[in-house]
Design a protein that fits this description.
Number of helices: 6
Largest sheet: 9 strands, antiparallel
Helix content: under 10%
Number of strands: 28
Shape: globular
Radius of gyration: 23 Å
Strand content: 25-35%
Length: 581
């Protein structure tokens, strides 16, 4: 039998999870090896793309082939780009759980499609006009790094074209952000009415700009992947990263909560001992003095702009459009990277995704994947402009499958992050992209919720040729359900694979997992060898406890003390009335 848990309302879930909950022990039996990759369009790709924990079924929500075969549906497929023509990336739900937003990480013609899960219907909300698709008419052409010979550009032809929309993020204002990573100009674009009627013609053009979508010009131009809102500083602090081998970690503090264009101050993270220990802000994370410089420990949010968003004296304009290149060698590079270098921002090895949670001490924590470093870091927000940087997990330092049979898998390409309703973090790898061994999904076991994991547990492994897993995200209504996509499989290229299934989105439910035996979960207070599973019992108990957590006086005190991201709360001075004479 399975423990019956009713889906919770979106408002309840947003209130209780994962902000006040600690991590758990694994609720599944971890895998012991990565899976082998099957041939393109193999039956496994069509029915069960991942090797997953026992009991967890895989349900196909949609696929490129299904959408294109259905009248009335639409999805981005850029002509001539083969298997990278659709590139469904980091998915986002709306709070009702009805709509799933699919960004397209294509070299040009990038866009956003919306899947209505009630109607099983996909529609394009925005697509670039392909103005940057012709390298002959544009300058500054560069190889895109994805497909040999494929080009992307940075030039005026990008006015109504977009490249490499990697993240999709639902905002507290009820809009959706998408942002450009390795192609385009490093812009963040906001869809203003993401649940309304889709435009009859979703192609970006002047008459749609300002009414249907707009650019968020308060966020620096970098290679955007992870971008996320603070939970504590509601709708006022935005964390984001620059996906580069000398990439920095940024925070935007808006002047007014929810006013995304009304100005704000941009900061970059600098580990306090980084420069003194020989660090070089403009170099790659492992080059020169950076190989031995300190990039962990106490850190400071260093200002790049003033509170109105204007670059500080001596700092290059962080909001300048450009290609994703090294500003030291390429004058056409995006502005955010040079600005971070100018103030000594600590470089990290390809920061990719960003997830925001809460530690056991009630401090906000920002998790960031560092792909080139094969690690994930946790950044504890201390208030007063300070933070503490720790290693959450790494392939080299974190033991795997502790208390369970070991795995031969390695975490060599951490990319996306996901967080379940109890605050557990999942790491999604972007390997293999090709080859014979599948990329993996990992469960981060941090049961004391201190930002340093005790174990990295092997959760799933992808067996689809030419693909990677992307966009894992949990349903805001049903805490056990998550979705995840198969991006750029070989089967998307119909010339090479006729009738290929193509990019696809799949659904799982963690409540279906066969729980591990009781002896493997000795740290649980109540543990029974039963099909119901101790994790599910713990899950239900913690959800009930979380409903009462806002009344916890320790939590209230922590919230009062850490209300301000940059400076401590100012003291209030009472003015006494003057006596009349």
């Amino acid at each position: 039998m399975k423990l019956a848990l009713q889906p919770l309302s979106g408002l309840v879930l947003l209130a209780i999870a994962p902000a006040v909950l600690a991590g758990t022990a694994p609720y599944f039996n971890p895998l012991t090896q990565s899976t082998a990759v099957a041939t393109a369009n193999h039956i496994n790709e069509q029915l069960s793309p991942w090797q997953a924990p026992a009991g967890m079924s895989q349900i196909n929500l949609t696929s490129l082939s299904e959408i294109e075969a259905s009248p009335g549906q639409s999805i981005v497929r850029v002509p001539g780009l083969g298997r990278v023509a659709t590139m469904i990336d980091m998915l986002a739900f709306d709070p009702s759980g009805r709509y799933l937003f699919m960004p397209h990480e294509t070299a040009f013609g990038a866009g956003l499609s919306r899947l209505d899960l009630h109607e099983n219907k996909s529609e394009i909300l925005l697509a670039g006009d392909l103005g940057a698709s012709d390298p002959v008419t544009n300058g500054f052409c560069v190889v895109d790094g994805i497909t040999p010979g494929q080009v992307s550009t940075a030039c005026p032809a990008w006015d109504f074209d977009y490249g490499a929309f990697d993240p999709a993020r639902w905002t507290p204002n009820g809009t959706v952000w998408v942002a450009e990573e390795w192609s385009g100009l490093g812009r963040v674009i906001e869809i203003l009415d993401p649940t309304g009627a889709a435009p009859a013609d979703p192609t970006a053009r002047p008459e749609l700009y300002g009414s249907h979508y707009r650019e968020i010009t308060t966020i620096a131009n970098v290679a955007h992947e992870g971008i996320n809102f603070s939970r504590r500083f509601h709708n006022q602090v935005v964390y984001y990263v620059d996906e580069w081998n000398s990439g920095s970690i940024y925070a935007l503090v808006l002047k007014q909560p929810g006013d995304y264009l009304g100005g704000g101050q941009t900061f970059v993270l600098r580990v306090d001992d980084f420069l003194a220990s020989g660090g070089e802000a403009g170099a790659d994370w492992n080059q020169g003095g950076n190989a031995d410089a300190r990039r962990f420990g106490l850190a400071t949010w260093v200002p790049v702009t003033n509170s109105n968003g204007q670059a500080l004296p001596g700092v290059p304009n962080p909001f300048r459009d450009g290609i994703s290149a090294d500003p030291a060698t390429n004058p056409n590079a995006r502005g955010g990277r040079a600005a971070a270098d100018a103030v000594g921002g600590t470089p990290f090895g390809r920061p990719e995704d960003v997830e925001v949670g809460t530690l056991a001490n009630f401090h906000e924590v920002v998790y960031v994947t560092l792909t080139s470093e094969r690690r994930v870091i946790s950044i504890e927000i201390l208030g007063g402009g300070k933070a503490m940087v720790r290693e959450l997990v790494s392939d080299a330092d974190t033991p795997k499958n502790v208390g369970f049979p070991s795995t031969t898998a390695v975490m060599n390409s951490p990319d996306n992050l996901a967080q379940d309703a109890l605050g557990n973090i999942y790491v999604v790898e972007d390997s293999p992209n090709s080859g014979n061994v599948g990329g993996d999904v990992w469960f981060v076991r941090d049961t004391d919720n201190n930002g340093v994991a005790e174990s990295l547990d092997h959760f799933m492994s992808l067996q689809v040729a030419g693909s990677e897993s992307t966009g894992m995200v949990f349903d805001p209504i049903n805490p056990g359900r998550f979705v995840i996509s198969v991006q750029h499989p070989a089967s998307t290229d119909l010339e090479a694979v006729p009738n290929g299934i193509g990019d696809a989105i799949w659904e799982f439910n963690i409540f279906d997992a066969v729980p591990p035996p009781c002896k493997a979960l000795s740290d649980f207070n109540a543990c029974e060898d039963s099909a119901a599973g101790s994790f599910l019992k713990s899950f239900a108990g913690q959800l009930e406890a979380a409903r009462k957590a806002p009344a916890d006086p320790a939590r209230k005190a922590a919230m009062r003390d850490r209300d301000y991201f940059i400076v401590p709360r100012p003291k209030t001075r009472r003015t006494l009335p003057q006596s009349g004479v």
